[in-house]
Design goal:
mainly alpha; 427 residues; 22 helices
């Protein structure tokens, strides 16, 4: 399908091809009424091909055809999510790509005449009302958001009418509050589109408890260089939701947003404090950030040791050890591994050259202890894999000793003895 290219296919044929491709793919990948994990992935690949064709159609100004086909792919994807094994994540990826394409289509249609804008909006509303979106509230409202750019004051009334109907129906739902939140977001975005950010600021602040709207308010404040307001809005959430875990990719991670505010505002002192907070939450990226800031103000050497001590005390073992490896702090790494042999056979490779005896001794102890806990061949294989690693690290004498002792200690474990004999051949 890709090879033919949309330019060679008449635009009126695109929709039938998309429908037939998806229908054939679903039929071919359904076995006894069930769509398994790999079958779902096969359908997703065909959907991606259809999306490529829609994108090519959009590129040659087939706006409505591309939009109609993309919404058809979206609805098919949402249907699939209800009854296929989509645990690989590929279906979610297709659906997200489809929204991107629908948004692009809508942005292109926005530049066209009113008749086409109204036609596109009517299509989006019609699709969003379909029962396939029942239970997929966020996906339904995400589709309606795509239609906002097409609205003028007159056509906006149609969108608001649909929002009202959906809100009314949602009262019967398990989570009517969730629909209410989505409704408020779409209404605000619609009003902002129609009347501008200044005239809708009151509405924005009335609903500032909604995270998505608070993010918009923070971005507005940043654009206006009102950094105090941006900081205040962010701190209200960061202090209220003090979390122990940091999600670097989550735009609603307020500590992350707060760091960006200080960086943009160029407030070095607060930037350092926030970067340190994020590092001590376990995000090693901020080690490099702090290093750069401290070096720029000539304070790196002064703060280096104390920063390492604080990171050790934070008990973020993986983060602390990653930093030690990047800074080539082998003595500190050895001390930490000796205190806590967590993942010894990973960290050992950074230490065995300089500290072979200490690492061999730790390996001996770790292998002996894990063998005492082991119950089946799968666990014995893990133990002998570690012995093999010890041999690779030139710890043959320790390996011989531990094999001999394990054989003597557990003479009635045939599976263990079998695995030990296999690894013994590597000596």
């Amino acid at each position: 399908m890709k090879e033919r290219g949309a330019a060679m296919i008449p635009t009126e044929d695109i929709m039938p091809i998309v429908k037939n491709t998806i229908a054939a793919s679903i039929k071919c990948n359904t076995h006894r009424g069930y769509i398994g994990w790999s079958s779902c992935n096969n359908i997703c690949m065909d959907m991606h091909d259809c999306l490529d064709m829609c994108a090519e159609t959009l590129a040659i100004s087939g706006y409505m055809v591309a939009l109609e086909s993309a919404t058809y792919i979206l609805v098919s994807g949402v249907k699939l999510a209800s009854h296929a094994d989509s645990s690989s994540g590929m279906l979610t990826d297709v659906i997200m790509c489809t929204y991107e394409l629908i948004e692009k289509c809508a942005k292109e249609v926005e530049k066209q005449d009113k008749q086409m804008r109204d036609q596109a909006l009517a299509l989006i509303i019609k699709e969003a009302k379909k029962s396939v979106f029942d239970g997929w509230t966020d996906w339904r409202y995400d589709l309606l958001k795509c239609g906002i750019c097409l609205c003028d004051e007159k056509s906006a009334k149609k969108l608001e009418k649909v929002l009202g109907t959906l809100l009314e129906i949602s009262r019967e739902d398990y989570y009517p509050e969730y629909t209410k939140k989505e409704d408020l977001i779409v209404r605000y975005l619609l009003h902002r589109h129609l009347y501008g950010k200044k005239n809708t600021q009151k509405e924005l602040y009335q609903n500032i408890a909604i995270n998505e709207l608070r993010i918009i308010a923070i971005k507005d404040a940043m654009e206006d260089k009102n950094y105090d307001e941006a900081e205040k809005l962010c701190l209200e959430k960061a202090n209220a939701e003090e979390t122990w875990h940091y999600h670097s990719s989550d735009p609603e991670d307020w500590n992350n947003v707060l760091y960006d505010i200080y960086k943009t505002a160029n407030i070095t002192e607060k930037q350092i404090a926030q970067a340190k907070k994020l590092l001590l939450m376990g995000n090693e990226k901020f080690w490099g950030v702090l290093k750069q800031i401290y070096k720029e103000c000539g304070a790196w050497n002064k703060n280096y040791e104390s920063l390492l001590d604080e990171l050790k005390d934070s008990k973020r073992t993986v983060c602390y050890r990653s930093v030690l490896i990047s800074e080539n702090e082998k003595k500190r790494l050895l001390e930490d591994v000796m205190e806590n042999p967590y993942d010894l056979f990973y960290y050992g490779k950074y230490l065995v050259k300089e500290y072979p005896e200490q690492i061999y001794e730790l390996c001996y102890k770790e292998i002996s202890e894990s063998c005492a806990q082991a119950k089946d061949r799968r666990e014995y294989k893990k133990i002998t894999k570690n012995i093999a690693q010890l041999i690779k690290w030139k710890g043959k004498d320790t390996a011989k000793l531990v094999i001999k002792e394990l054989k003597q200690t557990y003479p009635r474990r045939p599976a263990l003895l079998d695995e030990l004999e296999k690894v013994e051949k590597k000596l």
